[in-house]
Design a protein that fits this description.
- This protein is of the alpha+beta class.
- The protein folds into 5 domains: 110 residues, PAS domain (Beta-Lactamase, 2-Layer Sandwich), CATH 3.30.450; 110 residues, Beta-Lactamase (2-Layer Sandwich), CATH 3.30.450.20; 190 residues, GAF domain (Beta-Lactamase); 229 residues, PPM-type phosphatase domain (Phosphatase 2c, domain 1, 4-Layer Sandwich); 120 residues, Histidine kinase-like ATPase, C-terminal domain (Heat Shock Protein 90, 2-Layer Sandwich), CATH 3.30.565.
- It has 21 helices and 31 strands.
- β20 and β21 form a beta hairpin.
- α8 runs antiparallel to α13, α17 packs antiparallel against α18 and α20 runs antiparallel to α21.
- The radius of gyration is 50 Å and the shape is elongated.
- The termini are far apart.
- The N terminus is likely disordered.
Length: 798
């Protein structure tokens, strides 16, 4: 015979655990046999239908005369098809068939399977053992049942809870929002699943808890509303962990958006308030703010820290002890210890001791006033270097900081420190690049009679923008503005090379198109002949892609000759107020190796204003360049009393109260015309006898100008230059004297042969002429035209 355990094993068969149903007639003959009965007893329907039920049920069986109602379930023994004995519970219920004959429904269930008892056991377990908070409320939201071990009502006796309104039992937990949810569930029947709710439970009224709440309407068998079941669980720890993760994720996007130390510190303070603290302050070492290398390892308490950021929740404080930019001279013990061992400090309950009150009474008073009661101090370190300190206070939040808060603040400080150090490194590189850029640009623009100039150079990123005003022979002047792509040291160095090259080429008096062509060869030459490796010479170190505008203005003829290499054309304003942009062929940027450059010549009225600028002037912060040009033309059409005022007005119009994103260069030049009485010129025949005539004409003109002191030296210079022209040229000779900031003597002939300075020996009969000219003048040189050349020499006026 099988044991009861064997029967229990069969209860795991499909259908057996849920009971088996069979129907017998008034004579005890089986008329229905369910699959569950087959699973429980092993007999098939073919084997049992039409047979007496006593085949399986031993002893007393269903007796139609025993009762007219349902018999109570009782345990009996039945026979399995295998011959084993099974203990089952039998429940018999009368029923009538279609003809009115009495039949009996017999429900067989394994012994021990009692649904009411199981339901009762489940209810007892849920109400006494489950950590899930359960409260049953009636339609008036009065407490009917609850489990006393659940969070929130733990330890409260039933006599103080049952029958009272839920809001009276837990006023800090059940508020208007929760009551609205409860009534909505009662009215609509739609459950609420895992809604987050914040409150203060009666078991812990001093602290806020976060609960996950699910609400279900309870109904009777007819569908009537009995009340609502509220199931809740305390998820405060999970919520706190998720909030900390969200804070770090949010901080990763908010901190380090710029490469400015002060801005990054401000982002750290803003990211931590109010998610972590009510008040946050960031103090940074002075060396870090200046971009210098900070000390490695711990620093002494004497280190100079400067307030870099401060942030507080609304109502937390009315004033701060140290404004942003102030030096913080005293630090309490926890701050000093943090600097000494570079470990974060947690002060759960902050007290203002004598150390604070004596050395920093103002801050001590503000801490008392704000009610700050808990403090975390975090060292800001990155790559082994100390950058500063971040301090966090709680004032309006009643809960003090805990170990989790300390870990979160430390992680936040670590991430922010990397961004601060990146900004420091950028500051150092930018400062060095700005110094290099400044050293490579002209410190003072030379004074010149040909033009009045005004300049605005806003250096924001140490880009490769440059400008120049270069005096040329014949009282002319060259105006230059250019741009090298990129920023930093490489761009500044490339700019310096280009500016030096232009100055050298301008000294040769090349035409603008020839000068840009020569400059293009200088840029493309190294890249073509020996391509640099990325490690030693990055591609952006080359000046490929640089743009330049080169203009030469002659105050005698009032002609302006221009050429440009991919640079914006100048804007020219006439004395009458009309503004136009001349049609100058753009030309390719330097190093592109494309079409040659072209020259455009304009005749400008005296008093015209040329505006040379970089693209960043008219394309600030992503604005439309056409809008920038319109602003520039508007200001130039209505000039201010001085040229510098007009220059400043253009900058204000393009960048109102903002710092430009890129370097901006604006060079304004107002043209002058040299009076005719300051220029004297003669055409002389190619005859050696004319040398005497040239000397006489020179002496007479110098006497007219009152420059008799220069008569002797000037006659020597004229004699040498005219003699050389007669010797090497064939056509007429042009002699010109110009009285400008210097006395300029020019001799022009039709020969393209360039003179060379020689150092004659003692026995040589000639070759000393140009050497003598070089000794008597400040500078001299040769410039070539389409036909012929001009030799010029300058002497300083007395």
């Amino acid at each position: 015979m099988s044991t009861r355990a064997d029967a229990a094993g069969r209860q795991g068969e499909p259908g057996a655990a849920h009971g088996a149903r069979l129907v017998v007639d008034a004579h005890g003959v089986v008329v229905e046999w369910s699959p569950q009965a087959q699973a429980l007893l092993g007999y098939t329907a073919e084997e049992m239908v039409g047979r007496q039920v006593t085949r399986v049920v031993t002893g007393e069986h269903a007796d139609p005369d025993a009762a007219e109602g349902t018999k109570p379930a009782r345990e009996r023994a039945v026979r399995h098809r295998s011959g084993d004995r099974l203990d089952v519970r039998i429940q018999v219920q009368p029923m009538a068939d279609e003809d009115g004959a009495m039949r009996w429904s017999v429900l067989l269930a394994p012994a021990g399977f009692d649904r009411p008892e199981i339901d009762s056991a489940v209810l007892r377990a849920v109400l006494t053992q489950s950590p899930l908070g359960l409260q049953v409320l009636d339609p008036d939201l009065r407490v009917v049942r609850f489990n006393t071990v659940a969070p929130g009502l733990r330890g409260m006796p039933a006599t103080e809870v049952v029958g009272r309104l839920a809001r009276e039992v837990a006023p800090g937990l059940v508020d208007e929002s929760l009551e609205r949810m409860l009534r909505n569930v009662l009215e609509s029947g739609r459950p609420v699943i895992e809604a987050e709710h914040v409150g203060r439970p009666p078991s812990d009224p001093d602290h806020e808890h976060v609960y996950s709440v699910s609400l279900f309407r309870l109904q009777d068998g007819t569908g009537g509303t009995l009340g609502v079941l509220a199931a809740s669980t305390d998820i405060s720890e999970r919520h706190q962990a998720r909030a900390g993760l969200n804070l770090l994720l949010d901080a990763s996007t908010r901190i380090g958006t710029t490469l400015d130390v002060m801005t990054t510190c401000g982002e750290l303070a803003e990211a931590s308030v109010p998610q972590l603290a009510d008040i946050a302050a960031v103090d940074i070492l002075d060396d870090v703010l200046e971009g210098q290398n900070p000390p490695s390892g711990p620093v002494s308490a004497d280190a100079v820290l400067r307030r870099a950021a401060f942030q507080s929740v609304e109502g937390a404080t009315a004033a701060v002890a140290y404004q942003v930019g102030d030096v913080n001279l005293f630090y309490p013990r926890s701050f000093r210890e943090c600097l000494a061992d570079l470990r974060p400090r947690l002060t759960r309950h902050l007290e203002i001791d004598n150390d604070w009150a004596t050395h920093d009474a103002r801050r001590a008073e503000l801490i008392r006033r704000t009610g700050a009661h808990s403090l975390i101090v975090v060292p800001l370190t990155a790559r082994g270097a100390v950058l500063g300190l971040a301090s966090f206070y709680r004032s309006t939040t009643p809960d003090p900081f805990d170990e989790d808060s300390l870990a979160l603040a430390a992680e936040l400080g670590t991430r922010a420190a990397v961004c601060i150090d990146n900004a420091r490194r950028y500051t150092r590189e930018r400062t060095a690049a700005l110094i290099l850029q400044s050293s490579l640009l002209p410190q003072v623009l030379p004074a010149h009679n040909a033009v009045d100039v005004a300049l605005q150079h806003l250096s924001a990123t140490a880009a490769g923008d440059w400008y120049d005003v270069i005096p040329l022979s014949g009282a002319r002047v060259a105006l230059v503005v250019g741009h090298v792509p990129g920023h930093g040291m490489h761009a500044a160095a490339a700019m310096g090379r280009l500016r030096t090259a232009i100055t050298t080429l301008a000294a040769q008096d090349l035409a603008p198109d020839e000068l840009l062509a020569a400059l293009d060869d200088l840029v493309t030459g190294p890249a073509r002949d020996a391509a640099p490796t990325p490690d030693t010479h990055p591609p952006h170190e080359q000046a490929i892609g640089a743009t330049c505008l080169y203009a030469v203005y002659d105050p005698i003829s009032r002609h302006c000759t221009l050429a440009r290499a991919g640079h914006p054309a100048p804007v020219i304003a006439s004395p009458r107020g009309t503004v136009n942009i001349p049609d100058i062929p753009a030309g390719p940027p330097l190093g592109s190796g494309r079409t040659p450059y072209e020259t455009t010549e304009l005749e400008l009225p005296e008093g015209s204003t040329l505006a040379l600028f970089t693209t960043s002037l008219i394309n600030t912060q992503g604005s439309d360049p056409q809008h920038g040009l319109t602003q520039l033309r508007r200001v130039l059409a209505n000039p201010l009393p001085t040229l510098q005022d007009t220059c400043d007005a253009v900058i204000r119009a393009q960048n109102p109260a903002t710092t430009p994103d890129d370097d901006v260069v604006l060079l304004l030049a107002r043209t002058r015309a040299l009076d005719t009485d300051r220029v004297a010129s003669w055409t002389l025949p190619n005859d050696p006898a004319v040398v005497t005539t040239a000397r006489s004409l020179t002496s007479r003109q110098l006497s007219t100008w009152g420059l008799q002191d220069l008569d002797f030296t000037t006659q020597l210079i004229v004699s040498e230059l005219v003699t050389n022209a007669i010797r090497y040229a064939t056509g007429p000779i042009q002699q010109r004297l110009i009285r400008d900031r210097a006395l300029i003597c020019e001799v022009t002939d039709d020969s393209s042969t360039a003179p060379h300075l020689r150092h004659a020996d003692l026995t040589d009969e000639g070759g000393r002429g140009l050497y003598l000219v070089a000794q008597l003048t400040n500078r001299w040189g040769t410039r070539f035209a389409v036909r012929g050349k001009t030799i010029w020499a300058e002497q300083a006026l007395p």
